[in-house]
## 1
Amino acid sequence: MSKPLSPMSWRKGTGIAGRPWKGRVREYDLFKELTIGVIVVTVLVVGVSLILSSPDDPSITLKSWANAKPADFVATATAELGGTSETAGYGPPYNSTPDATQTLGPIDLQSFSGVRIPINTAEDLVIHPLSTLPNAPKEIATWTTASDKQRTDWTAAYGKALEKAPDNDPAKVADGSYGPVPALTGSLLAMAQQGSLDGVLQSRGSFYNTDYTPTILFLGDGTYFPDLATAQHLTGDQWGMMNETGNYPGQSWLWLFSFFYQVEPVKSAANADILVVVIMGVLTLLLALVPFIPGLRTIPRWIPLHRLVWKDYYRKR
């Protein structure tokens, strides 16, 4: 007959937890220590946040751009119509502009996947949004029925006139043969200032407004958005980046990408983007293959930093 087990208790037993403490004993006010700890940590967090935190700037929208810099908005819309903006000549994945890609010898990664996000700047960023208005401008018909040469002439003439106007103000442009361009860009400006252009560009024919690509491209073609980046020292001439408020952890993982843009010969290379991509690809491959590369895998034996990290373990051994 088996002997019944005695009830277990944390107060009794031969284990180390049940042995009486024979060391030094002193009073400890847990509430006091907790209060001090919370206050000290709070002060440190608030202080460091005030000194080192990223600016909490509001999001940039087409509406804020159109209201802050209407002349720049109209000039950019004119370039989109004429196909002379940066987006219009970017190449894949937005369009098939010849010789627009960055290459590394025969490697042309930009063209590898083809034109997957087709962007016709005149149609997608100007004409289509205007056609969604309840009272669409009648000048749309004039634009769509004109020849490519006529459109180019109109936008080129109006673009030069904007440059010569005082403060580049569309209202102060001299008379000229601009066709429907002033009416189209003026209507688009009004649409943006009312806040409806953002939603139209981001919907892209879907129910949810989740595609920010057209809006970002449009913003990037103007000078307003780059000027804001320059004011925050985010143009790439300094090593750093601004964290995006609300999206944790933000862009901190891009620090290594940003670093290579500050180092020659990448810094001054015309194909800097493809160089950084290749460098990061090689480094990632080396990291993945560390256990299989002779010499590289024995570095921990030559430089035993791990013994400092786990010094207690190696001391016992």
## 2
Amino acid sequence: MTLYGIVDLGYNTVKLSDGTDTVKQAGLNSIASGSRIGFKGTEDLGGGLKANFVVEMGITPDESILTAATGASNRQSYVGLEGAFGSVNLGRQYTLHHGVQGGADLIGNVTAAGWIGGMDSRVRQSNAVTYKTPTFNGFSASAQVGFGETVQVNGAAKENEQTSLGLNYANGPLALAYAYEKVKNTSVLARDLAGTAFDLAAIAGTDSWKANALSASYDFGVAKVAYLNNSTKADDTTFNAKWSANNFAVSVPFGAFTAMATVGNGKIKVDGVDDTKLSAYQLGLTYALSKRTTAYSYIGQTKFKDVSVTPNDTIKYSTTAVGVRHTF
């Protein structure tokens, strides 16, 4: 069994402006990575069969008491078997959809404005079974089923029942990935990060959620580039919403430094009519103080433009951060 974790704290400033009012906030947060502590292990069962497990909890190192509200949350916990057939894991796990998005986010899923490639990401699925095939000539496939956990009363539908499929190809510097995700009876939403962006919040009432993610990356050695396309549809009994976005990222290492940048644009349609247009950017710079300790700085902005009204309203969500991350 192995103990592992991340302690990450940075000074983060947040600015939210709609052209009339401006809200500012500052403080310490986990920025480059969510702080966590976990246990993982593998047991050789013989005949090429192995058992594995992960138990990982999110923590909030700047709080005095760790509760569910302050961050002592179940990030992922699963147990599974691995062999010549591939692997099967049971428990709370990352979604295949989120995995495709994360592979194209070369800055690394930081807690900062400017990356709209993850706005439709559900990140993790509880009560899930995930199967991954072995890799054949660079190709592999995955399937995931998430069982709704809500108690059924008089035949009522379960919440958050999920099915998803994924395809991956990795050969040297080239990587391609695709994932499709379908969720029934859910309250997930395209996250606007600031919680105020026009009709995005309305998507929280959706009953049906279908999401696609397609990514490609290539490592040239002197630089790595990546592309991600999002396409998501949400429906309930009163409306339908469609979200689409294109995202580009680049990462350039030089010595102990790594410079990173992302740009993205997207749009939301409600009932077939253009509703909100988005544009975003992120810039990041990290410095490896050692193999396990990294200093970082990030800036980013996401702009939400409401095109359903005249004149158009615009909200700007901006963040800056500087901090240190240590892994163990």
